């Protein structure tokens, strides 16, 4: 394959708009330590309201914190928005940018996504850029063209800017349907090829109904370097099993 495999894979839990403080405390208590630190990095991406308390709860634990969105201005009269500096201040290392729910429900555009990426980099955050096609686009053979049109936001990225890309086919998110190993392998190869063309060398995660039953097969696909997990990250046992599955695969590589 024409890409280098990155040493540590990332398993990130995207809690979306779920969890109250008491539930988050329970979840984090049951999660314990990252059991596979040498091979797998673990991150939690809770709603904004839980960032500060989670930073305290996680303390010195080897689990990183991320947010699910960010605004691109540093400060000012932008009622309801959160800046990259605020996320750093709350203890975030990562921020999800361009999730399909934000593109489809909130109408987020490539232009806004590009602005958010640059704002995140300026504050020292590592963006997790989500890309993925809808079902009709896959059925019409447009997957690669869609992904290419989403990856253009990386043109003009500063040299060495930290980034993780998450490939999340929209039809696989929250549906219980996952892409087949063949689809994942083929699509990740294309994404790595595009990233190389753009001069970026980074991890590419898979996301979309990842669960303890399919994690090992998905993580073993060439070019997959971790997972962005939604629903299954809300259950400590499921999330731990996914981390373990990623560690089993990383151990074999
Ligand atoms: P899911 O969500 O695992 O619930 O499909 C993944 C995501 O949207 O990041």
What does this structure look like?
- The protein contains 10 helices and 8 strands.
- It starts with 8 loop residues before the first strand and ends with a helix.
- Helix 1 packs parallel to helix 10 (236-252) and helix 7 runs parallel beside helix 8 (181-197).
- Helices cover 38% and strands 15% of the residues.
- The chain has an 8-stranded parallel beta barrel with strand order 1-2-3-4-5-6-7-8, surrounded by 5 helices.
- With 253 residues, it is of the alpha/beta class.
- The chain has helices at 21-31, 51-58, 84-89, 100-105, 110-122, 135-139, 143-151, 181-197, 215-219, 236-252, and strands at residues 9-14, 40-45, 64-67, 94-97, 126-131, 164-167, 203-207, 226-229.
- The protein has a single domain (9-252), classed as Alpha-Beta Barrel (TIM Barrel).
- Bound molecules: 2-phosphoglycolic acid (PGA).
- 2-phosphoglycolic acid (PGA) binds at residues 14, 168, 173-174, 207-210, 228-232.
Structural class: alpha/beta
Q: Compute the number of strand runs.
A: 8
Which range best describes the helical content: under 10%, 10-25%, 25-40%, 40-55%, 55-70% or over 70%? 25-40%
Task: Write the element-wise H/E pattern from the N-terminal end onward.
Answer: EHEHEHEHHEHHEHEHEH
Could you give me the name of the CATH homologous superfamily?
Aldolase class I
Low-confidence stretches: none
Number of helices: 10
| CATH topology call | TIM Barrel
**Percent in strands:** 15-25%
Q: Mean pLDDT across all residues, rounded?
A: 95
